[in-house]
Amino acid sequence: MDNNLVDGGHLKAFIERIEKLEEEKRAIADDIKDVYGEAKGTGFDPKIIRKIVSLRRQDKSKREEEEEILGLYLAALGME
Hints:
With 80 residues, the protein is an all-alpha fold. The protein has three helices and no strands. 79% of the residues lie in helices and 0% in strands.
């Protein structure tokens, strides 16, 4: 690849922005981990909280469909 065809300054700016965002993402992930730790410290189950957060992100009809299928599968296995 010819170095004359690549705008190094522009490329560097993109890379630096991405690096900054990755750093912020790690900091936010640490903050979230701390909140789960606080919840656990007050008696809540972090695994269940994670599941609830995941469910709240889903569209209601999608969630209901998944719950229905899960119920069918559990019943088929004699687990319901």
